Please model this.
Amino acid sequence: MVNVAIIGVGTVGQSVAKILEDNKTLISARAGKEINVVKGAVRDLSKKRNTTIALTDNIDEVLSDDSIDIVVELMGGVDEPFKVVKKALTNGKAVVTANKALLAYHRYDLQEIAGALPIGYEASVAGGIPIINALKVGLSANQIMSIKGIMNGTCNYMLTKMSQEGVSFDAILKEAQELGYAEADPTFDIGGFDAAHKLLILASIAYGIDAKPEDILIEGIENINGHDIEFAKEFGYSIKLLAIAKKSGNNIELRVHPVLIKESQMIAKIDGVMNGVSVIGDFVGETLYYGAGAGGDATASAVVSDIVEIVRAGQSSPMLGFKKPHESQILKLISTDEIESEYYLRMRVQDKSGVLATIAQICADNEISLETILQKTTDDKNIAMLLCATHLCKEKQIKQAISEIEALEALEDKVSMIRIEE
Amino acid sequence: MVNVAIIGVGTVGQSVAKILEDNKTLISARAGKEINVVKGAVRDLSKKRNTTIALTDNIDEVLSDDSIDIVVELMGGVDEPFKVVKKALTNGKAVVTANKALLAYHRYDLQEIAGALPIGYEASVAGGIPIINALKVGLSANQIMSIKGIMNGTCNYMLTKMSQEGVSFDAILKEAQELGYAEADPTFDIGGFDAAHKLLILASIAYGIDAKPEDILIEGIENINGHDIEFAKEFGYSIKLLAIAKKSGNNIELRVHPVLIKESQMIAKIDGVMNGVSVIGDFVGETLYYGAGAGGDATASAVVSDIVEIVRAGQSSPMLGFKKPHESQILKLISTDEIESEYYLRMRVQDKSGVLATIAQICADNEISLETILQKTTDDKNIAMLLCATHLCKEKQIKQAISEIEALEALEDKVSMIRIEE
Model:
């Protein structure tokens, strides 16, 4: 018999308890032992919860309870759960967490503190999709050439609706909030930070890279508008918020931002709140993993799979797949400036002669060659919309060009930029 | 240091050796130990091979070599590899196999013989896609409600081409053979047997069901023609060869056959030689796994991931995820006759009055209600093509109706039937 305690009994925690109860016989047969949730710790005991777990507001009591084998951390936040998980490990307990923010900052600390104790974190990335396990075990033969993930359901829902129904960003954000797909303060999701946390976790398993959110390029979907959606459709692209890890030589790129991506690619076909991660390995080629990236039951499914695996096997390998630093190669996170991409730019300009030529000259001066330029009329006859796509250039070149373009008097607005992912 | 021997050094075996060599440092870092391929056993030493492995034609010598830790079985066939794997296990060696036919017949025998010794078989289903691991570990919290897999690249390539380019079955088979996507004798692939072997392996992990190929419904794609493709397009369907496992209550359906499936479903979007498996769990909902289902490198990627996992962890759980018989429930494989589906029928009939009415009456007599009937002209003005889709009925009802229809004098040909998967 294995005893589990849950710290933080919200939607996911209640669902973990429900799964272990509803599928008790099946899970016992798979795990080889009976698994029981014996305690839950919460901050506020007076809150209404739909659960039969015995609750306490004394976390320390739970963490020092010798009868507890596995502590499931579902508190949210960074500092407080870090203390809790440290204490659980110090007291010899296995840990399962769904906390991506905790791992984005402290995964290597935790791996070190854990030593031989197992830490499961399948639920921290892409909810119910077993992507951690796929990367750590299923693809272990491969150099990971790239990871491209749609890992934020809120953004994907909004972009899908904008594209399929022509709804405006603001209207769809409001709808997503009403449906519970977006938070009252949506910055963490639509700003790309949630996806960035998940990307950092995957990058550790693939590359042993110890980067933090502030080390990488993160842009959200706030500036996408109807013109971009139209341009995308016209040229056979979808617009997606992708979290991207790419290896070239010993350089690793990590970045989260909206992209234009060809509709024919599998990952471009993932719509609505669903998540998906495409991984290219040097021998296996592309594999893709698709499923529900959020929601209490899907996330809890991943939490319980970690519990089952700990009961079956204990820790089968270092938490992050291999030890830090990466023992086989010195891999270097490349600076944002050196990232190469093709770019799409949208500019509102005064509709007078010479503007287009000046902008083209700025691009040329920065050694950026243009693939497509479209000029469109707007409601205001004095204002034109310029849409253009570049060939490959570096981030620092496009940034420089954009700042020079934005300094032009003819510019009515900031330049809006989306990277094109081939 | 871990020593590996490969029995059967063909395309996959050579690729296994190449991966372990090319990615040696990386794989050592992940596995925690150096892994070396020290021997290969082959039937015919005179065959040309692109490998530096020391080869022998004395399999027994390899199997009794005390320096070998892991035996990789890549021979093909059933009886001979069963003997080889048994002997390897009896001699205390861990085993990795890519042999789906061996597992379709002997997986429970092997699980019993192995005891605590690890057997890896990720490569046996869907090549490089880590679907075994996903089912065994990632989804272990769930009752598996259904598995639907496109697990034969040959069939999917042919159906995709027929649909996208209007090529005939015979022409595309010839092309597939020339491209190396189909064998000289393609029966094993296009008859559905290859997919059936894979389905049986997945069904064991999901349900603990010990069925053999002869226990389940297996139909191939031989009878699909242009009329079916056209009908599918007209009604928004794709035609795919699906391997299906479905749970309803304690009944399990296992079947492999072509289906009409709505184009909007994720699995319907998997085209060409690619494979994909959709799994629905009671808590996680749908997850889908996509990638290369065949080819030396993709298959070898899965073989090597098993080797790495054995080196890391040993056997972390019973080979098939849980012991036979399923300990939590008595699950029953339902007989083919009791399977329920909607059906599409194609009939070449003499174009004279009363034929359609007679066929409709036969359906009514068998309590089959029709959803759609289309009559199309053919090149021969005396012959009409009838295409119809039914509502839900049982396999035994449709079989009975088809045999009665085929007994009609007006029938020019056998009735062609495809199940509709909703």
